[in-house]
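@here heads up, posting the sequence + SMILES for the NAI run so it's all in one place. Ping me if the SMILES looks off, I pulled it from an old spreadsheet.
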Amino acid sequence: MTLAIGVIGTGAIGQDHIRRLSQTLSGAKVVAVHDINPLQAEAAVKQYQLAASVHDNGQALIRDPAVEAVLVTSWGPSHEEFVLDAIAAGKPVFCEKPLAVSAAGCMHIVQAERAHGKRLVQVGFMRPYDAGYRALKQVLQEGRIGAPLMLHCAHRNPSVGEGYTTPMAITDTLIHELDVLRWLLDEDYVSAQVVFPRKSSHALPQLADPQIVLLETRSGVRIDVEIFVNCQYGYDIQCQIVGETGIASLPEPSSVPLRSAASYSTAILTDWKQRFIAAYDVELQAFIDGVQAGSLTGPSAWDGYAAAVAADACVLAQQNGAVVEISMPPRPDFY
Ligand SMILES: NC(=O)C1=CN([C@@H]2O[C@H](COP(=O)(O)OP(=O)(O)OC[C@H]3O[C@@H](n4cnc5c(N)ncnc54)[C@H](O)[C@@H]3O)[C@@H](O)[C@H]2O)C=CC1
Ligand SMILES: O=C1[C@@H](O)[C@H](O)[C@@H](O)[C@H](O)[C@H]1O
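bot reply: prediction finished. Complex structure tokens:
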């Protein structure tokens, strides 16, 4: 069976997912698209030669009988409404991060999904599907560096657009670490603090960049994450775990070492699309396969909620400079 997917939001990642659904993955096809900017939707249909209808609103796409599953890749603040509509229609939905822009919004989705009685939601947290993070988790699970004590992480983008603001460093960027580090350590956070180094001259006035987020987990692991979204030199994701008997680091993406012009070098990627290309493929194939098998296993609405609870605390910590408590309720059996 080929899963008929409707895509809401045909911008950067929407088009990238349409490309992989149409050209790389198996078992799915794009049958409908919608974007608040109709020219953007038409452009996606043309570029990927889709046999897809173009809807003039998201609700119509979700209700379209030809659409069996929904992909939400629109702007973050629109996610909650579309995901709730998909659940109300009983259709599986893959939603890009963030699941909703606040923990309260994510909780509405959790409640709706539980009331429906079966998992319908997968969140686009792709890093748990990345081979490097998976290898890192295996090292931890095999006890090869002993119990984890500290994590030193960095999330660096070369530059960001004019619309990117200080809280977005948390809700748009750090949200990936909030998810993947929780998955890696298999525990929730209990506190957050944000400190601001000297501001980069490359950051626009509305953005404090870089930032350092300090997290503490339930067992006492201390985590520092540098978020630096105007670092200029590349797209660079770092994660180093200091354990009781050793240190484990996220592998660098593979690249040909070059001896040339009196130097020895390896390239650094500049684009998130390339850095996690394999992980995006695997996460979306897992969604297709999960829908076909009647059982979703990827990052859940609860994972989206957990990341949002921590993100809310980090945004508050940005404002007051204090250590903010993170209070995470126990995971319901449903998840
Ligand atoms: N998992 C990942 O690594 C990534 C996830 N994302 C997430 O994907 C989402 C989209 O990001 P981008 O593609 O980079 O943004 P974008 O700005 O390139 O595209 C967003 C598209 O959604 C459309 N849109 C906005 N509001 C809408 C609404 N209410 N209804 C229908 N269409 C609407 C816009 O017209 C635009 O075409 C964001 O939530 C972002 O955080 C983005 C990049 C990477
Ligand atoms: O999700 C993403 C973007 O939305 C976000 O703006 C970037 O900072 C992240 O690196 C990228 O993975």
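MO: The chain has a mean pLDDT of 97.
MO: One more: Residues 74 and 269 are 25 Å apart (CA to CA).
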